[in-house]
Amino acid sequence: MFDLKQIRKDFPILAREVNGKPLVYFDNAATSQTPKQVIDVIVDYYSNYNANIHRGVHTLSQEATDMYEQARQTIQKHFNIAKAQEVILTSGTTHGINLVANGYDAFLNDGDEILVSAMEHHSNIVPWQMLCERTGAKLKVIPMNEKGELLLGEYHDLLSEKTKLVFCNHVSNALGTINPIEKIIESAHKVGAAVLIDGAQAAPHIKADMQSLNVDFYTVSAHKICGPTGVGMLYGKEELLQKLPPYQGGGEMIAEVTFEKTTYADLPHKFEAGTPNICGGIAFGEALNYMNAIGFDAIAKYEHELLEYATEKLLEIEGLKIYGTAAHKTAVISFNIDGLHPYDIGSILDKLGIAVRTGHHCAQPIMDFFKIPGTVRASFSFYNTTEEVDILVAGVQRAKNMLQ
Amino acid sequence: MPIKDIQKEIVDEFSMFEDWMQRYEYMIDLGKALPLIDDQYKTDDNIIKGCQSKVWVHAELEDDKLVFTADSDAIITKGIIAILIRAFSNQKPQDIIDADTAFIDEIGLKEHLSPTRANGLVSMIKQLKLYAVAYQTQLK
Predict the structure, then answer these.
(1) How large is the C-alpha radius of gyration of chain A?
(2) In this structure, are residues A375 and A335 in contact, taking their beta carbons and an 8 Å threshold?
(3) Is A5 helix (H, G, I), strand (E, B) or coil?
(4) SS3 (DSSP) at B121
(5) What CATH number labels A4-30+295-403?
(6) C-alpha A119: how far from its chain's center?
(7) Mind telling me how many Å the CA of B2 is from chain A's nearest CA?
(8) Chain A residues 274-333 with a CB less than 8 Å from chain B
(9) How many Cα atoms are found within 13 Å in the side-chain-facing hemisphere of A134?
């Protein structure tokens, strides 16, 4: 059952004040807050069984290893991944993207093409640009319309035998657009291209099913899904991960080492060099348990109500324009007010205890597309309330009165 | 007037305000009254790095004193740069180099002082002082 009162009690931070006002946290797309259940797991780890994993024969090490591998299974189950070895634990989405981008050096040739959507986060643009520089492959952009929806017709025109890779976010961080990744994946596969989906912004709202999506790579960060920072997941199809060379060398990822030659460990350890974020991984699993107990359908339904309510209320403010009006979007509202700088609005909202993001949201190409320096972005989570939305709307109105 | 005295004057003005809102409103007014930089100097070279909003600063030597003009696309930032210019413009470069900046703290803008703050108050002060160092060398 979706019990908002109880849910809010789970998040200790929601009780704090900022600048003498109750915190209104609307920067969930940057990072989500952490429920007590996850915090408890972190405290329990360091209080009771902190040890290095996979190597020790002693009890603590075995307990930590069991918990870490159990978390991997939780992640596997959550994303409906066929095999545990297809779950690579990373430091986050950016790590996952770089791991794949570096591995593809070996498979790309001069003249090959990589497609990336027009609404990518910098972390899903720069690694591919670097890959193109190293290999001579060409980066091409799937365009979008004024609503912030990808143009699938143009996408199909861009696809050809030269296309080796397609990258797209499941949900845009700056606009909230839910991209039709099922179609994008299917079409890419028809020309033999592999697809990596950046699921960072989708994971808090949508339970993605790796097997039914038939996606090649999918990557997320735990800290957007009520987990800690510094940990995430890269899913990859086993056959592709087998072919991909290791990204980093070190302990954990080897089978045998001599000074002449090293053989690599099996999946997933081949990509998990060094001591991982053990506690983070375990907490990531707990965060998924927490959200699944509430239920993603209930979360999506409630967040959609918040989105519709906030959209309607904000649009009552004269001169306010929302960027990203796709038919399918998550609870993210990027906006500007005629003649005002997003930074000014954000500064005044902060004084009122309201946390929003201002700026280009690490997606400068989107800002260039709309010819704006940035936006104010309010992003909602299932623990937010309509009362908080009212505080935001009043705050924006107040900022507008002060600044104009 | 020496920099120290101007700073005291600014601190006195801000001490009259009871809450952040009045302070911000005053800063916004100061921003609106800022003597604007000549358009020819609003170039990428004159943009101060490290600010979420764009800030342009131009410095010119008049006799032995350094005169600053500036602009920003964000109004609160404009207010902050206006305060800095009031404190440091029309002063001898050496005095600008030597000047203390603790008054920023006293007028309740401490939160803007952290080096990681997106508005880059620290970058602004650094840039004004860099101009002073450059012109001081030129004067010698």
Answers:
(1) 22
(2) yes
(3) helix
(4) helix
(5) 3.90.1150.10
(6) 14
(7) 31
(8) none
(9) 14
Q: At what angle do helices A126-135 and A93-103 cross, to 10 degrees?
A: 10
Please say if A362 is a catalytic residue: yes
Residue A375: closest CA among A394, A357, A391: A357
Domain span at B131: 3-139
Q: Do B52 and A344 touch (CB under 8 A)?
A: no
In A65-174, the DSSP E strands lie at: 87-90, 113-117, 138-142, 163-169
- What is the CATH classification number for the domain harbouring B111? 3.90.1010.10
What residues of chain A score a pLDDT lower than 70?
none
Q: Using CB atoms, which residue from B24, B53, B118 is nearest to A341? A: B53
| Distance of alpha carbon A28 from alpha carbon A230, whole angstroms | 16
Q: Is the pLDDT of residue B113 over 60?
A: no
CB pair distance less than 8 Å for A351 and B20: yes
Look at A344 and B25 and tell me if their CB atoms are within 8 Å: no
Mutate to test the interface with B, among A341, A367, A404 (most CBs of B within 10 A): A341
Residue B119, token pair as written in the block? 């508005």
- What is the pLDDT, as a whole number, of residue B114? 53
Closest A-chain CA to B117: A347
Q: What is the pLDDT of residues B4-35, one digit of tens each?
A: 999 999 999 998 988 888 888 999 999 988 87
Compute the average pLDDT of residues B43-50. 81
Across the interface, whether the CB atoms of A343 and B20 are under 8 A apart is answered no
What residues have CB less than 8 Å from A354, skipping those under 6 apart?
Answer: A21, A24, A26, A391, A392, A395
∠ CA B55-B57-B59, nearest 5°, is 175
From the list B25, B53, B54, the residue facing A402 with the nearest CB is B25
Class of domain A39-292: alpha beta
Say what the pTM is. Answer: 0.91
CB of B54 within 8 Å of a chain A CB? The answer is yes
Closest chain A CA to residue B112? A347
A404 touches chain B (CB under 8 A): no
* Residue B131 burial (C-beta neighbours within 10 Å; 0-12, 13-18, 19+): buried
**Residue A179: its H or E element:** none
C-alpha–C-alpha distance, residues A39 and B127, integer Å: 43
Which sequence spans correspond to the domains of chain A? 4-30+295-403, 39-292
Establish if B22 touches chain A: CB-CB under 8 angstroms.
Answer: no
What is the maximum span of chain B, computed from C-alpha positions, in angstroms? 46
Number of structural domains, chain B? 1
Range of weakest confidence among A117-121, A184-188, B50-54, B135-139: B50-54
Contact between chains at B20 and A344 (C-beta distance less than 8 A): no
Confidence class of residue B117 from pLDDT cuts 50, 70 and 90? low
- Are B28 and A358 inside 8 Å of each other by CB? no
